[in-house]
Protein backbone atom coordinates (compact mmCIF):
# COMPACT_ATOMS: atom_id res chain seq x y z
CA UNK A 1 0.00 0.00 0.00
CA UNK A 2 1.17 3.55 -0.65
CA UNK A 3 1.63 5.56 2.53
CA UNK A 4 1.37 9.36 2.65
CA UNK A 5 5.15 9.41 2.47
CA UNK A 6 5.00 7.39 -0.75
CA UNK A 7 6.47 4.27 0.92
CA UNK A 8 4.89 0.89 0.37
CA UNK A 9 3.87 -0.98 3.51
CA UNK A 10 3.56 -4.74 3.76
CA UNK A 11 0.37 -6.60 4.62
CA UNK A 12 1.68 -7.26 8.13
CA UNK A 13 2.21 -3.58 8.88
CA UNK A 14 -1.26 -2.81 10.25
CA UNK A 15 -3.00 -4.00 7.09
CA UNK A 16 -6.00 -5.21 9.10
CA UNK A 17 -6.80 -1.59 9.94
CA UNK A 18 -6.73 -0.51 6.29
CA UNK A 19 -9.86 -0.36 4.15
CA UNK A 20 -10.56 0.77 0.61
CA UNK A 21 -13.56 1.83 -1.44
CA UNK A 22 -13.43 1.87 -5.24
CA UNK A 23 -16.29 3.62 -7.05
CA UNK A 24 -16.68 2.61 -10.71
CA UNK A 25 -18.74 5.58 -11.84
CA UNK A 26 -20.09 6.35 -15.28
CA UNK A 27 -17.63 9.20 -15.80
CA UNK A 28 -14.73 8.45 -13.46
CA UNK A 29 -13.35 5.81 -11.14
CA UNK A 30 -12.49 6.90 -7.59
CA UNK A 31 -10.31 5.00 -5.12
CA UNK A 32 -10.08 5.90 -1.46
CA UNK A 33 -7.82 4.01 0.94
CA UNK A 34 -7.92 4.72 4.66
CA UNK A 35 -6.52 3.41 7.92
CA UNK A 36 -8.39 3.07 11.17
CA UNK A 37 -6.52 5.13 13.80
CA UNK A 38 -8.00 5.80 17.22
CA UNK A 39 -11.48 5.03 15.92
CA UNK A 40 -11.21 7.36 12.91
CA UNK A 41 -10.53 6.64 9.26
CA UNK A 42 -7.51 8.58 8.02
CA UNK A 43 -7.04 8.87 4.24
CA UNK A 44 -3.70 7.42 3.18
CA UNK A 45 -4.21 7.18 -0.58
CA UNK A 46 -6.67 8.28 -3.22
CA UNK A 47 -6.86 8.30 -6.98
CA UNK A 48 -9.34 9.44 -9.60
CA UNK A 49 -9.26 8.34 -13.24
CA UNK A 50 -11.52 9.85 -15.89
CA UNK A 51 -12.50 6.71 -17.79
CA UNK A 52 -15.78 7.97 -19.27
CA UNK A 53 -17.40 4.55 -19.15
CA UNK A 54 -20.81 5.91 -20.19
CA UNK A 55 -19.26 7.29 -23.38
CA UNK A 56 -18.85 3.71 -24.57
CA UNK A 57 -22.48 2.75 -24.05
CA UNK A 58 -24.09 2.48 -27.48
CA UNK A 59 -27.73 3.03 -28.39
CA UNK A 60 -28.10 -0.76 -28.32
CA UNK A 61 -27.05 -0.80 -24.65
CA UNK A 62 -23.73 -2.51 -25.34
CA UNK A 63 -20.54 -1.20 -23.75
CA UNK A 64 -17.82 -0.85 -26.41
CA UNK A 65 -14.66 -2.94 -26.26
CA UNK A 66 -12.47 0.19 -26.56
CA UNK A 67 -14.02 1.80 -23.48
CA UNK A 68 -13.92 -1.47 -21.56
CA UNK A 69 -10.19 -1.71 -22.31
CA UNK A 70 -9.62 1.88 -21.12
CA UNK A 71 -11.51 1.12 -17.90
CA UNK A 72 -9.67 -2.16 -17.35
CA UNK A 73 -6.32 -0.40 -17.84
CA UNK A 74 -7.35 2.01 -15.08
CA UNK A 75 -8.35 -0.88 -12.85
CA UNK A 76 -4.89 -2.42 -13.31
CA UNK A 77 -3.39 0.70 -11.74
CA UNK A 78 -5.92 0.59 -8.90
CA UNK A 79 -5.18 -3.12 -8.37
CA UNK A 80 -1.54 -2.27 -7.68
CA UNK A 81 -2.62 0.13 -4.94
CA UNK A 82 -4.99 -2.48 -3.47
CA UNK A 83 -2.58 -5.42 -3.55
CA UNK A 84 -1.58 -5.36 0.14
CA UNK A 85 -5.02 -4.63 1.54
CA UNK A 86 -6.94 -7.64 2.85
CA UNK A 87 -9.73 -8.45 0.36
CA UNK A 88 -12.28 -8.47 3.19
CA UNK A 89 -11.50 -4.75 3.72
CA UNK A 90 -12.12 -3.70 0.10
CA UNK A 91 -15.48 -2.62 -1.32
CA UNK A 92 -15.94 -2.04 -5.05
CA UNK A 93 -19.17 -0.54 -6.35
CA UNK A 94 -20.43 0.02 -9.88
CA UNK A 95 -23.13 2.51 -10.75
CA UNK A 96 -25.40 3.63 -13.59
CA UNK A 97 -23.51 2.52 -16.70
CA UNK A 98 -22.92 -0.92 -15.25
CA UNK A 99 -26.63 -1.20 -14.46
CA UNK A 100 -27.57 -0.12 -17.98
CA UNK A 101 -25.04 -2.05 -20.09
CA UNK A 102 -26.43 -5.26 -21.60
CA UNK A 103 -22.91 -6.72 -21.55
CA UNK A 104 -22.00 -5.52 -18.04
CA UNK A 105 -21.39 -9.13 -17.02
CA UNK A 106 -18.50 -9.34 -19.51
CA UNK A 107 -16.89 -6.19 -18.10
CA UNK A 108 -17.52 -7.19 -14.47
CA UNK A 109 -15.95 -10.62 -14.93
CA UNK A 110 -12.82 -9.06 -16.40
CA UNK A 111 -12.74 -6.29 -13.78
CA UNK A 112 -13.07 -8.73 -10.89
CA UNK A 113 -10.21 -10.83 -12.26
CA UNK A 114 -7.99 -7.73 -12.29
CA UNK A 115 -8.87 -6.29 -8.87
CA UNK A 116 -9.55 -9.57 -7.07
CA UNK A 117 -12.74 -8.34 -5.43
CA UNK A 118 -16.39 -8.70 -6.50
CA UNK A 119 -18.01 -5.55 -7.87
CA UNK A 120 -21.36 -4.68 -6.31
CA UNK A 121 -23.54 -2.90 -8.87
CA UNK A 122 -25.56 -0.58 -6.64
CA UNK A 123 -28.84 1.26 -7.06
CA UNK A 124 -29.33 4.61 -8.71
CA UNK A 125 -29.64 6.25 -5.30
CA UNK A 126 -25.93 5.66 -4.79
CA UNK A 127 -24.83 7.03 -8.17
CA UNK A 128 -21.82 9.02 -7.12
CA UNK A 129 -19.51 11.79 -8.20
CA UNK A 130 -17.40 12.01 -5.06
CA UNK A 131 -16.25 9.73 -2.26
CA UNK A 132 -14.61 10.55 1.06
CA UNK A 133 -14.07 9.04 4.53
CA UNK A 134 -16.27 10.10 7.41
CA UNK A 135 -15.76 10.27 11.14
CA UNK A 136 -16.43 6.92 12.74
CA UNK A 137 -14.83 7.74 16.07
CA UNK A 138 -17.80 6.33 17.99
CA UNK A 139 -17.38 2.83 16.60
CA UNK A 140 -14.89 0.36 15.20
CA UNK A 141 -16.73 0.35 11.88
CA UNK A 142 -15.36 1.50 8.55
CA UNK A 143 -17.41 4.11 6.80
CA UNK A 144 -17.29 5.89 3.45
CA UNK A 145 -19.82 8.22 1.86
CA UNK A 146 -20.76 9.18 -1.66
CA UNK A 147 -22.80 12.13 -2.88
CA UNK A 148 -25.28 12.32 -5.72
CA UNK A 149 -25.49 15.35 -7.94
CA UNK A 150 -23.89 18.77 -8.01
CA UNK A 151 -24.15 20.52 -5.70
CA UNK A 152 -24.30 17.55 -3.35
CA UNK A 153 -27.97 16.90 -2.69
CA UNK A 154 -27.88 13.54 -0.99
CA UNK A 155 -25.34 11.44 0.89
CA UNK A 156 -25.11 7.67 0.90
CA UNK A 157 -22.92 5.95 3.50
CA UNK A 158 -21.50 2.45 3.49
CA UNK A 159 -20.59 1.10 6.91
CA UNK A 160 -19.51 -2.22 8.35
CA UNK A 161 -17.13 -3.76 10.83
CA UNK A 162 -13.76 -4.70 9.37
CA UNK A 163 -14.08 -8.03 7.63
CA UNK A 164 -17.90 -8.00 7.47
CA UNK A 165 -20.29 -6.88 4.71
CA UNK A 166 -21.09 -3.22 4.26
CA UNK A 167 -24.57 -1.82 4.78
CA UNK A 168 -25.85 1.28 3.00
CA UNK A 169 -27.90 4.21 4.27
CA UNK A 170 -29.08 7.40 2.58
CA UNK A 171 -29.92 10.82 3.97
Verbal overview:
The chain is an alpha+beta fold and 171 residues long. The protein has a domain of 110 residues: ATPase, nucleotide binding domain (Nucleotidyltransferase, domain 5), CATH 3.30.420.40. 20% of the residues lie in helices and 35% in strands. The strands form 2 sheets. Strands 3-2-1-4-5 form a 5-stranded mixed beta sheet. Helix 1 packs parallel to helix 3. The radius of gyration is 16 Å and the shape is elongated.
* Main β sheet profile: 5 strands, mixed
| The CATH C-level class name of the domain at 15-124 | Alpha Beta
Ends apart, CA distance between termini: 32 Å
Count the strands? 9
Secondary-structure element sequence? EEEHEHHEEEEE
Instruction: Indicate the CATH architecture of the domain at 15-124.
Output: 2-Layer Sandwich
| Share of residues in strands | 35-45%
The count of helical stretches stands at: 3
Q: Taking strands numbered 1, 2, ... along the chain, how are they ordered across the largest sheet? A: 3-2-1-4-5
Subunit organisation of the chains: single chain
State the CATH topology of the domain at 15-124: Nucleotidyltransferase, domain 5
Radius of gyration: 16 Å
Averaged pLDDT, please?
75
Write the layout of secondary structure elements.
Blueprint: E1 18-24, E2 28-37, E3 40-50, H1 65-82, E4 90-94, H2 96-100, H3 104-115, E5 119-121, E6 130-133, E7 141-148, E8 154-161, E9 167-170
Helix pairs in contact: 1-3
Amino acid sequence: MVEESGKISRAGDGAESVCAVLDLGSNSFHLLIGRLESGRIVTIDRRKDMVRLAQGLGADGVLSEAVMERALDSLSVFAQRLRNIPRKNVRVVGTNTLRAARNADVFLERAERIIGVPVDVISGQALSTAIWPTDSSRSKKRKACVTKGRPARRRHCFTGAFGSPFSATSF
